[in-house]
Request: fold
Amino acid sequence: MYQKSVPNVMRETTSLNAGDCFAISSRVKDKFDFPLHYHNEYELSLVINAKGAKRIIGDSIEVVDDIELVFIGPNVYHGWLTADCGNKAINEVTILFHIDLFDEKFLQRNQLFFIKSMFENARRGIVFSYETTRDITSRILNLSNKDGFNSVVELLAVLHRLSVSKNMRMLSGPGFSGEKFQFASRRIDKVFEYMKNNFDKRLTLAEVALVANMPEASFCRFLKKNTGKSFIESLNDIRLGNASRMLINTTHSIAEIAYQCGFNNISNFNRIFKRNKLCVPKEFRRAYTLGGMNGN
Reply:
């Protein structure tokens, strides 16, 4: 069922048939014992009664609330650890659908703008707000009671409802996947691509503003308006994404990884990593190791 791809992460061959639009499964379990994995399909995952468990998506590791809903794009590393969850009746509902279920030309239509945007953001993993999850839970639980055409229409309606919901949050860092950046501004795309290709070097605000062909002050305002983050925050996101990937896929020491990702000292790296990932690099690496070993 699995083939090993990179250390601690399994490539999953799902049970979704090529001729089906989607597959839904629901199970009650007393712990999370499925290894960290990835697959070619989109995944909408509803988890109930798992407060205290840990969720890993890309380079994001967070503690689960009593109910949560996440949307995961194709080939994104993900998994759950039992951790401090003491509930013996965890309810997990998983919906899988093919990457080409909704044709690209179909998604280009004006009425599908929000769904298309959500699909693009799913490459970093999305967690929906508690309020949205609570409001949509019954529809997801009832989806298995529908069949044929009606089930597909209801899935599309659920996806639309989620795509226009408030306070959804992307989980994995922008530098982790290694994919091309896509912002609403070509100038921002150019800047991020430059930082992506030079994150291991000493980059200055003046140098990056020059890439954008803007004065430093104007560039700072422009970047903040378009991304919500400063130059340093954006650069650190890219560096942390690459550092996280190295923590997972290599045996390099944490100090080696810090310097190779552009951080000038290990203390600074540990501090920034913990502020952004809520754990230090050593704990992050251990969580991935446990996840790959079905650890709790």
